[in-house]
Each structure stands twice: as C-alpha cells, then as structure tokens.
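Work through what follows:
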Amino acid sequence: MALTVFALPAEAAISATATTDLNIRSGPGPQYPAVGLAGRGSAVLVDGCIEGSRWCQVDVNGTRGWAYSTYLAADEGGTTVVIENERAALAIPTVTYEGPAVETTASMPMGGELIGPVEAVDAIQPPDTVRTYIDGNPSDPVYLDGEVVLGATVPETVTFREIPDYEYRYVRVNGQPVLVEPQTRRIVYVYR
C-alpha cells in the first residue's frame, strides 16, 4: 500500500508526542482503517503534513501511516506546541498522498466534526456486557472530520443509542464504537 509520493530522509522527520491515544490510519482521513495506535505520550516521527489538511504522515515504532495533527505536540524553542498550530514554525515538510482512495458513501451518515481540543476526562472501564450489547445491536456508522479520541465532543447532529441499565450511550464513529456521556457529549471510552 503506497502512503505518499515523497520519501523523506530520516533526518527530515520531526519528533513529536501523541497527546492522547491516537489512531494511526492507512490514509489521511477518518474513513481509512486504523493500522496502529500511538498511546498517550508515545514518541511519533512526523515526516510531513498535507498542505491545507490536519493529516500528517507519521512513524510510530515502525508503524507508518497518518495521524491527525491536532493531537500531536512537539518542542519549539523550549515550549510544547500543537503541530496543527505551528507547522510553519516547526518547518514541517509538505507531503502528498497517493494511495487507494477510501470514500464514505451516501449510506454513511456524515455528522460534522469532532470538536477539539479534547478536555481531560476520566476514562471509564465498561463491563464486558456493554461490548456484547453493542456488538449484538450495531448502529449505523457516523463519519466525522477528525479523529476518535478520549474526551472529544460529538456534535449535536449525531444521535446516540441507549444501552439498557447503563448511564452511557454508544455510537459508531469513523468505524469505531465509542461510549459517550450523554449530558456533555464527550467520548469516555473508545473500543479499539
């Protein structure tokens, strides 16, 4: 699977850190499958980012793919900055993507953008019966611009499904089941 047109020398990569558990995807978008995970605090090498996009080509412990720059931080003159906001100051190269296109279709409802930056939330540990219920009662996927991360806010346009005798709701965002606190609409658990 081709990931990019340009191969950059290793010294051009920018060292960064994942600010939350972050999917590494096979292409630059939430519609591409996850090929790995950068855990919160993981070292990430950023080869470059697509011009006009928040998606960057990355390497995490040998897993190459694409990550959402809103959740990547780097050191810029002794200050930790979010890559999305400081691409020029960090001199991050521009890359392009030439690989298999994966498109969302009309049957996949579009729901807007996951709202960030994420707020700190305490992750929950759902009982196994919740996953069993979700798997047995699948919801239609909703595709949102951005990445599915703990603490992100799900837009008002997205409808959640109830789980019997459970305080949280669920929805499948960008192909991943997530649990959401209904009052704040914040993601409190991501099934990976």
Notes: The longest helix spans residues 128-136. The CA atoms of residues 27 and 101 lie 8 Å apart. The helical segments are 128-136.
